[in-house]
Amino acid sequence: MRIDLHAHSTASDGTDSPAELIHAAAEAGLDVVAITDHDTTSGWKDAVAALPSGLALVRGMEVSCLGHGEDGYPVSVHLLAYLFDPLHEAFAAERQRLQQSRRTRIHAMAERMRADGIGIDPDQILADAGNVVGRPHLARALVDLGVVDTVSEAFTHHLSPRGPYYVRMADAWLDDAAAMVRAAGGVAVIAHARARARGRLLDLDHVRSLAQSGAIAGLETAHPDHTETDRRLLTKLADDYNLFTTGSSDYHGANKTVSLGANTTAVEDFHRLTSLATGVPVVQR
What's the predicted TM-score (pTM) here? Predict the structure, then answer.
């Protein structure tokens, strides 16, 4: 089985609609794909409707969080939440808060650019993005304006945490987010914890404390932004604390060069994930 547990659609910052994502997963020869848009479940319904025979869908989300950084300061972290009940009151309220935080943040970043003479229209970006807006929407606008040549170039300078226009989101604390996922019947997995190219890193002692408490069930180890050394490090940590491991593409369509199925999850780890979930089931025709 080929299982990819991290992919994005236009419901957040991908370029494929949820239906197109499902078709792309089938074309890529996947047996299982997860839709994990940032801070929203709005793509779930269309993804389910597009599901062909032979492809299983894991409904999930990537939650924006803060954790303990290696340098002692809070650092941005992403938590993958799988198979949770979308109607769970506290977690639904957190999604709404995060979505508003995203809009406030992107508007502020666009205003900083406009003050610097870049012809960005904050209101138009928010209108075009829909419910969930992120830095890739700004990046595409910068490409359209000719300010940069590619989305990657925009992230290297204008949108980098070390860049002149960056604004931090008001993210949930990692422990609280993991607790909400569990309360909603879902399974919590820390995403790309050693993605060094993205900047500062999560302190692995924070990961260990979450594993010891049972707040998280797994670690995303095989990811395009992880070196082989870091994959081995995370796999060893997962073994030490009886966590399952996942592999994924973190597919964003045309916003990234990575393809669906670039990394995959072992069948036994997938079964461990699904055995822990009580929110919603895996969908298969």
Answer: 0.89
